[in-house]
Design brief:
Layout: E1 3-5, H1 14-18, E2 24-25, E3 31-32, H2 42-46, E4 52-54
């Protein structure tokens, strides 16, 4: 089960720097590659607006 970033994302970049496998890419809102995500939850724990949820 991977995580996904919802439309609540403010593109602050906090999650990308926390991802140990580089699964998060930059954009208008950030995106998590489900094939790369290891389901560690670091991104969700770090997100200041709680925009990252388990998919």
């Amino acid at each position: 089960m991977a995580y996904k970033i919802t439309d609540s994302c403010t593109a602050c970049g906090t999650c990308a720097s926390e991802c140990p496998v580089g699964a998060i890419s930059e954009g208008a809102i950030y995106v998590i590659d489900p094939d790369t995500c290891i389901d560690c939850g670091s991104c969700a724990d770090t997100c200041p607006v709680e925009a990252i949820v388990a998919d």
